[in-house]
Amino acid sequence: TIPNSIAIDGPASSGKSTIGVRLAERLGYLFFDTGIMYRAVTLAVIRAGIGVDDEEGVTQLAHRVHIDVRPPTVADGRKEDVLLDGEDVTWAIREPEVEKRVSKISAYAGVRRAMTELQRRIGKRGRVVMVGRDIGTVVMPDADLKIFLDASLEERARRRFRELIQRGEAVRFEDVLAGLKQRDQIDSSREIAPLKPADDAVILNTDGLSVEEVLKRVFELCKDCG
Ligand code: C5P
């Protein structure tokens, strides 16, 4: 039978959303990227002038903001539209200012509680490919298929760097690498829902593999995925 719910986890730039989108397309499922929610909260925190160390303020805001995700209405390479209190923030949440702070904010228990609840609700509807850090372990522990995508830091930094350059951002490779490294470190060492493979996840190392090659393996894992 075709898995009804699929969880994809892994470190930053391991290809989770690229693979997740393609898998969801193939199955006619909803693709849901949970990283977007933590990014949107972080953007809201910055805009509200709340300090990232102000756990109380950050947590309150996380419960107050309204995050919406819908299929893309603009063809500029986006995988979805992200709305923060009704405003299109699809690209704003990918800015370095957000990226620098997101891991700190997503380590807060109250922030995770708010986001996890929304994600579980979406997961329960089924026919979903959900990607993040704690989907197989916390958000959808009963997912029918769990994939943990991994790749070396250098390879992920190279992919990420290429992506940013293509998007026209002026970045330095060393900074991209350092940013990923720091985020992974915080994400994997936090107390609540750290980044780690679920016991029953299939770990796929994608070093040296093209998107098509990774997809082929994912489709093999998901025999009836077509
Ligand atoms: O996946 P993405 O790089 O967009 O995620 C941004 C950040 O959001 C991660 O570095 C992590 O701190 C947080 N995140 C999380 N749990 C998830 C998804 C993302 O803590 N399920």
From TrEMBL:
Family: Belongs to the cytidylate kinase family. Type 1 subfamily.
The organism's place on the tree of life at top rank: Bacteria
Statement: the UniProt record of this protein carries the keyword Transferase: yes
Catalytic activity: CMP + ATP = CDP + ADP; dCMP + ATP = dCDP + ADP
Source organism per UniProt: Bellilinea caldifistulae
GO CC term (a single one): cytosol
Source organism phylogeny: Bacteria, Bacillati, Chloroflexota, Anaerolineae, Anaerolineales
Identification of the protein by name: Cytidylate kinase
Molecular-function GO term, any one: CMP kinase activity
Range of residues in the leader sequence: none
Keywords noted in UniProt: ATP-binding, Cytoplasm, Kinase, Nucleotide-binding, Transferase
Alphabetized NCBIfam families for the sequence: cmk
Gene3D superfamilies membership: P-loop containing nucleotide triphosphate hydrolases
Amino acids binding ATP: G10, P11, A12, S13, S14, G15, K16, S17, T18
GO annotation terms (biological process): nucleobase-containing small molecule interconversion; pyrimidine nucleotide metabolic process
Domain Cytidylate kinase: 6-223
EC number: 2.7.4.25
Subcellular location(s) of the protein: Cytoplasm
Predominant cellular place of this UniProt entry's protein: cytoplasm
